Amino acid sequence: MLTLAVALIVAAEWPRLGGRFGRQARANRARARRKREFAVIEGEREDDFAASVQRDLESLPVIEERDDRSRR
Length: 72
Description:
72 residues; mainly alpha; elongated
C-alpha cells in the first residue's frame, strides 16, 4: 500500500520532477557547463585585420597558368 502511494505521488509530481531530474534537465546542465568554458576574445582592430588578410594573401602559393590554346 505504501509503495502504491509513493508511485501515485511520483506520477502526480512527475512534470515538476522531470524538469529537475529528467533528460531535458540533464541536457540543460551539460549545456550550461559547456557555456561556462567559453572565453571572450577581444577582436583585433580593423587595420590589423586588413594587414593580416594582406599577409595571408601574399603568402599563398601562386600557380602559373599555361595557355594551352597557344601551343596548337
